[in-house]
């Protein structure tokens, strides 16, 4: 008869196996999310951090941070490079059009103004503000920043972004005993943070003080 502990080991994936599968998946999803801004990458990083908190491996959180920030940086660099190719092409490109479609005129004008005033520092804030990354990226494209200059500013932006959402996951993982409870809390918080700016803009537009006479 096989001991219960031995049978559980053969059925359930080990922690090292989960990590071997989890980090490449996190990298791929964050990379895709940077290229196609519909994947909730912040929630992914927070969820991965929750799981890392409940694991015994001491380097789990470091691996989550490194994987997420590298994937975000490479995804942004690839999208920016594709956007620059679209600007140089007479017919544009679908990538450039996708960037334009996600950068409303008012947000783009604000990003261009901030970029002219503060330069590279705006890139760091753009990744921390929900829906702020694409307008600032388009502003950099229209300002004809080379990829190297954009990357120099985008690197600390990706590091700060990964730290911020990882801290949300660490908080969720520390408050709850079960990992799934922490994941639910972290995802709910990231969704709330992402929806707050757009909800605030709608409230301002609906207020009598901002209605046209």
Overview of this structure, please?
By secondary structure, this protein is mostly helical. The protein contains ten helices and no strands. The termini are far apart. 32% of the residues are buried.
Largest sheet: none
**Distance, first to last CA:** 83 Å
Helicity, as a percent range: over 70%
State mean pLDDT (0 to 100 scale). Answer: 78
Shape: elongated
Total helical segments: 10
Radius of gyration: 20 Å
Runs in which pLDDT lies below 50 for 5 or more consecutive residues are 1-14
Pick out its properties.
single chain; 213 residues; mainly alpha; 10 helices; 0% strand; elongated
Quick gist of this model?
By secondary structure, the protein is mostly helical. It has helices spanning 4-11, 15-35, 41-53, 60-88, 94-101, 105-118, 121-128, 133-142, 147-175, 179-206.
Summarize the helices and strands and which ones pair or pack:
Blueprint: H1 4-11, H2 15-35, H3 41-53, H4 60-88, H5 94-101, H6 105-118, H7 121-128, H8 133-142, H9 147-175, H10 179-206
Helix pairs in contact: 2-3, 2-4, 3-4, 3-9, 3-10, 4-5, 4-8, 4-9, 6-8, 7-8, 7-9, 9-10
């Amino acid at each position: 008869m096989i001991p219960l502990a031995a049978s559980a080991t053969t059925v359930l994936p080990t922690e090292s196996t989960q990590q071997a599968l989890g980090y490449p998946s996190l990298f791929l999803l964050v990379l895709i999310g940077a290229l196609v801004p519909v994947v909730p990458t912040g929630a992914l990083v927070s969820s991965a951090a929750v799981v890392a908190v409940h694991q015994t491996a001491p380097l789990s959180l470091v691996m989550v941070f490194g994987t997420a920030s590298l994937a975000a940086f490479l995804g942004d660099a690839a999208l920016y490079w594709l956007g620059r190719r679209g600007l140089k092409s007479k017919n544009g490109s679908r990538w450039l059009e996708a960037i334009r479609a996600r950068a409303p005129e008012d947000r783009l004008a604000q990003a261009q103004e901030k970029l002219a005033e503060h330069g590279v520092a705006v890139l760091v804030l753009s990744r921390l503000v929900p829906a702020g990354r694409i307008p600032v990226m388009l502003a950099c494209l229209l300002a004809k920043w080379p990829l190297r200059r954009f990357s120099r500013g985008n690197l600390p932006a990706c590091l700060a972004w990964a730290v911020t959402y990882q801290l949300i996951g660490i908080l969720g993982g520390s408050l709850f005993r079960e990992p799934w409870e922490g994941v639910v809390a972290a995802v709910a918080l990231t969704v709330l943070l992402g929806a707050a700016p757009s909800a605030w803009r709608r409230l301002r537009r609906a207020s009598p003080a901002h209605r046209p006479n």
